[in-house]
Amino acid sequence: MGRWRPDARARLQEAALTLYGERGYEKTTVAEIAERAGLTKRTFFRYFADKREVLFWGSELLEQRMVAAIETAPASTSALGLIGAALDAAAVRFEEVREFAGPRHRIIAASPELRERELIKAMSLTAAMTRALRTRGLDDTAAALVAHTGATVMHVAFEQWVDDPSRTPFQQIARDSLAQLREIASTG
Amino acid sequence: MGRWRPDARARLQEAALTLYGERGYEKTTVAEIAERAGLTKRTFFRYFADKREVLFWGSELLEQRMVAAIETAPASTSALGLIGAALDAAAVRFEEVREFAGPRHRIIAASPELRERELIKAMSLTAAMTRALRTRGLDDTAAALVAHTGATVMHVAFEQWVDDPSRTPFQQIARDSLAQLREIASTG
């Protein structure tokens, strides 16, 4: 126990999600998470700052990939096309963590503290997309509108994806939502 | 002091905003707000649950008016037209409180606790608009997309309006933003 193991992070995440689901986020301690994972508290703190960060680890990675998708899309890409590229990048990430996504989502929904943290992360993501869209030549208002629209589609598609018994890929749900929004905007 | 006065609420709000601006939200006490307004702590608590609610009082009224605008728009109104009606209702409210809006916005921006509270209120508003849009016949996904789009336009327009030296009406800024979003969606 306590030595570096290649799967320690994933085991700690899995143990944390199990315990948060069983006894609630507030009542679970870092010591219990480490014990359930067969590791020490010291190992836990090598990977995560605290028990909250187990749930939010990886959000920087998601943000980086979505921003990179906006920055590297072909020059001819339209504003909504840039959002589509960012959502495709999010789709890759979401499918990687699909097994964690549902339990994580329910644990966050049950705690005001965690919901607030999730909102702050979403704001950070939207701000990062706004900056990336400005580097693609959009003016400030257009960049903000498009970034928030991307956040909207991501949020609405995520809610459908995370509880979908037929396991429709996120990419498909997000593309359908973006197309639906486009139709609403053009006919409205 | 302490007796009911028709302007007590407004005086307490003004005193609170002045003190929050001068010495910071965290360092200001209810006793100081009451004293600055020439009223008692007891009178303060007749109007506000705590010093935070001075900043958020009225958000239910905004929500009610926006929901009512969606519910009572003519039957032929398009989905984005319903959002336009809700934004027009918000515009009336914002112009009523324009003098408070700028200082309030800066105080909230300076405090993580207040920013989180503001985000929760915005979520509540979006959820209320989603429900209202469903009663107008939109399916769940369309209602969520349209409500979030309304929240997006409101947010982006508010940021422009609150610091606009030329005092352009919120209604005009919001309508321009909605038109810009429509154009982005149709050409994107």
From TrEMBL, chains A, B:
Where on the tree of life does the source sit, at the highest rank? Bacteria
The record's section on InterPro entries has: DNA-bd_HTH_TetR-type_CS, Homeodomain-like_sf, HTH-type_TetR-like_transc_reg, HTH_TetR
The record places the DNA-binding region at 29-48
Looking at the record, the residues that make up the HTH tetR-type domain are 6-66
Q: Which SUPFAM superfamilies match?
A: Homeodomain-like
In Pfam terms, one family for this protein is TetR_N
Put simply, this protein is called TetR family transcriptional regulator
